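Please describe our next protein:
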Amino acid sequence: MAMAMAMGVLNRRAARAAVVAAVGVSALGLSAVTASAKISYEFKASPHTVKAGARVHVKGYASNDDDLFQKFCVQQRQATGPWRTVKCAHGAVFDGGAVDTWVRANHRGTLQFRGALYETDWNSHKLHLQMVTPTETVKVR
């Protein structure tokens, strides 16, 4: 009798643990679905090989379907140096904006460009990096 009672308590505990785990997993799944947002972007730099002193055309845009303030910026770096912001769009809610600019390639070597989408949250007015585009590389001879 005691053995049967102990088995019943263990089975109830196991069932309770299974229910709690199932609820937790489904809550995680729902939060992932509701928290995901669609980011769309386009970014390009051309030409991919230039002489020193020539200009490179860089253009792109990005937007996120979140209802947050967004700003799209073009960034560059020489070789493996730090990223430096070249130009930013004005930005808006739902739209990071578009940038269309020319950059002079002053030094020989590798020049890299990328687009960066910044966003704010509702509790802060500080922009934080949300996404970067794949890097476009330009060889400067």
Summary: The two ends are 88 Å apart (CA to CA). Residues 1-36 form one domain.
